[in-house]
């Protein structure tokens, strides 16, 4: 299980190193080349998010005694991801302002308004992402509860089956006792046994059989 986590770690390191390099190049480029680089970085950051989700799932399956170490590593990777997203956001906003000024000839005041609008939209997207993550967590916890319920039901079913087996054995013993008692009475030299003594004889015979 931990080998999968380490594989994700290697992929994470490779992609984030490339993303860091590309974010630093964005301000130095122009035109179509810059546009393509921005799109490429955005796609790679999405891959990194998916890697973090996979790593989080792997940590949940790691034995408890080793989980703390992997949780610490995962936390540092998430912090690194947050920094990358902030750096990319700043470069992307600056790039958007530059393109907008070139196409529309906006003045400085209008550019600031657009920047504020972009920041607001970005914050909304981040809030939506957090809500999705919370929903995913609830789904995982619900699945765990369902597994526990199924396990309990399976255990209860086994108990019921064992109880049924004991009942069948008891019924068989009672039938055997009844047959033995009937045979004894038929072979007895005292054919006339008082009816009031029958339950007592029957009860004592069951005790003898059970003690065997």
Automatic annotation (TrEMBL):
<dbReference type="Pfam" id="PF05008">
    <property type="entry name" value="V-SNARE"/>
</dbReference>
<dbReference type="GO" id="GO:0042147">
    <property type="term" value="P:retrograde transport, endosome to Golgi"/>
</dbReference>
<protein>
    <recommendedName>
        <fullName>t-SNARE coiled-coil homology domain-containing protein</fullName>
    </recommendedName>
</protein>
<feature type="coiled-coil region">
    <location>
        <begin position="34"/>
        <end position="94"/>
    </location>
</feature>
<keyword id="KW-0653">Protein transport</keyword>
<dbReference type="GO" id="GO:0006896">
    <property type="term" value="P:Golgi to vacuole transport"/>
</dbReference>
<dbReference type="GO" id="GO:0005794">
    <property type="term" value="C:Golgi apparatus"/>
</dbReference>
<dbReference type="Pfam" id="PF12352">
    <property type="entry name" value="V-SNARE_C"/>
</dbReference>
<keyword id="KW-0175">Coiled coil</keyword>
<dbReference type="InterPro" id="IPR010989">
    <property type="entry name" value="SNARE"/>
</dbReference>
<dbReference type="InterPro" id="IPR007705">
    <property type="entry name" value="Vesicle_trsprt_v-SNARE_N"/>
</dbReference>
<dbReference type="GO" id="GO:0006891">
    <property type="term" value="P:intra-Golgi vesicle-mediated transport"/>
</dbReference>
<dbReference type="GO" id="GO:0031201">
    <property type="term" value="C:SNARE complex"/>
</dbReference>
<keyword id="KW-0813">Transport</keyword>
<dbReference type="GO" id="GO:0006886">
    <property type="term" value="P:intracellular protein transport"/>
</dbReference>
<dbReference type="GO" id="GO:0005829">
    <property type="term" value="C:cytosol"/>
</dbReference>
<dbReference type="GO" id="GO:0005484">
    <property type="term" value="F:SNAP receptor activity"/>
</dbReference>
<dbReference type="InterPro" id="IPR038407">
    <property type="entry name" value="v-SNARE_N_sf"/>
</dbReference>
<dbReference type="GO" id="GO:0016236">
    <property type="term" value="P:macroautophagy"/>
</dbReference>
<keyword id="KW-0472">Membrane</keyword>
<dbReference type="InterPro" id="IPR000727">
    <property type="entry name" value="T_SNARE_dom"/>
</dbReference>
<keyword id="KW-1133">Transmembrane helix</keyword>
<keyword id="KW-0812">Transmembrane</keyword>
<feature type="domain" description="T-SNARE coiled-coil homology">
    <location>
        <begin position="117"/>
        <end position="184"/>
    </location>
</feature>
<dbReference type="GO" id="GO:0012507">
    <property type="term" value="C:ER to Golgi transport vesicle membrane"/>
</dbReference>
<dbReference type="GO" id="GO:0000149">
    <property type="term" value="F:SNARE binding"/>
</dbReference>
<dbReference type="GO" id="GO:0048280">
    <property type="term" value="P:vesicle fusion with Golgi apparatus"/>
</dbReference>
<dbReference type="GO" id="GO:0031902">
    <property type="term" value="C:late endosome membrane"/>
</dbReference>
<comment type="similarity">
    <text>Belongs to the VTI1 family.</text>
</comment>
<dbReference type="GO" id="GO:0005789">
    <property type="term" value="C:endoplasmic reticulum membrane"/>
</dbReference>
């Amino acid at each position: 299980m931990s080998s999968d986590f380490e594989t994700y770690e290697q992929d994470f390191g490779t992609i984030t190193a490339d993303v860091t390099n590309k974010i630093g190049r964005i301000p130095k480029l122009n035109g179509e080349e810059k546009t393509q680089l921005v799109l490429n970085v955005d796609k790679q950051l999405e891959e990194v998010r998916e890697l973090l989700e996979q790593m989080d799932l792997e940590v949940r399956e790691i034995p408890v005694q080793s989980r703390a170490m992997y949780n610490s590593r995962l936390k540092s990777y998430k912090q690194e991801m947050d920094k990358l997203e902030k750096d990319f956001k700043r470069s992307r906003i600056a790039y958007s302002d530059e393109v907008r000024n070139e196409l529309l000839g906006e003045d400085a005041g209008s550019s600031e308004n657009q920047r504020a609008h972009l920041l607001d939209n970005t914050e909304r997207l981040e809030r939506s992402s957090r809500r999705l993550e919370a929903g995913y967590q609830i789904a995982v916890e619900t699945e765990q509860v369902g597994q526990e319920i199924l396990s309990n039901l399976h255990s209860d079913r086994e108990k019921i089956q064992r109880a049924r087996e004991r009942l069948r054995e008891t019924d068989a013993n009672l039938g055997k006792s009844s047959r033995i008692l009937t045979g004894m009475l038929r072979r007895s030299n005292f054919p006339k046994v008082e009816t009031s003594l029958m339950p007592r004889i029957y009860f004592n015979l069951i005790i003898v059989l059970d003690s065997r």
